[in-house]
Amino acid sequence: xxNRIDRQSSRRLMLALSLTLPLLGPAPAEAQxxxxxxxxxxAARAGPINVHPLRGGIxxxxxxxxxxxxxxxxxxxxxxxxxxxxxxxxxxxxxRSIGPGGIRLAVVTHWHWDHADGAGWVRAQGASIMxxxxxxxxxxxxxxxxxxGNTFRPKPIAELPNLSVAGDKTxxxxxxxxxxRHYVNGHTDGDISVYFVNADVLxxxxxxxxxxxxxxxxxxxxxxxxxxxxxxxNIAMSTASTIIVPGHGPVGxxxxxxxxxxxLETIRNRVAALKRKGMTLEQVQAAEPTNxxxxxxxxxxxxxxxxxxxxxxxx
Length: 315
Hints:
This protein is α/β, with parallel strands linked by helices. The protein has eleven helices and 14 strands. The two termini are 13 Å apart. It has one domain: 4-Layer Sandwich (Metallo-beta-lactamase, Chain A), CATH 3.60.15.10. Helix 7 packs antiparallel against helix 8.
């Protein structure tokens, strides 16, 4: 694909995403006519942060971009993802409502700002933050993500994860055994999962969007086929009793994770078949390969039209 076509496709993707933002609900006044990046940040500033108790001292927090998971105990909080920095005060209030103590350690599931932007203030409180080497490397570079309308600049060292996790790792925090495992390139090229063994709670980051079409970060090394492989990995790590914390959307389980994988596979195969016929992106979108899935999956930030474009890019 030449540069001219790339630019045209990027503009179309940006327009499609901007048209879906109202589906998140009424945007703060400051977010009107803004980029998706600015609108999501405005929503994080407005709040609220909602706390959903799970089990075994583990809770899910939503309202600051991606979901945050918090394990409380005498050693201090262990977090999975740290949200958007603008939500700092509300996140701290939410943690105080769960239990006493400060943040001791956090794991960031991938490089995207809606999961990792809070690393600076979390580290400033004395905590360490772990991430895949690729996720750290992405935050050290200038990266343009057209669909979000933002160019990400290199983060200062003090705002980066300070512990690199190149291989799978087992931790012991607050009486809980925690397994960190790496995915193949899927949502990005630096995705990791965090599994709380005793509580049987699996945190997937953005390899699982519960009830929503996902974003696939091709600039960051992701792909539709890798996204399907990551969904299969989540299924393999789960049983009928596992609580699954997705990157976005409500708390899930094996059934909702399997439905997500099946949706990815179905849309991928449909778009690939149309593309093999020589159809352009616009022609494939006009064929509406997501039409019978949009009511269930296209009600949030990624529309069926945009998801079709993301899949088309990778098949």
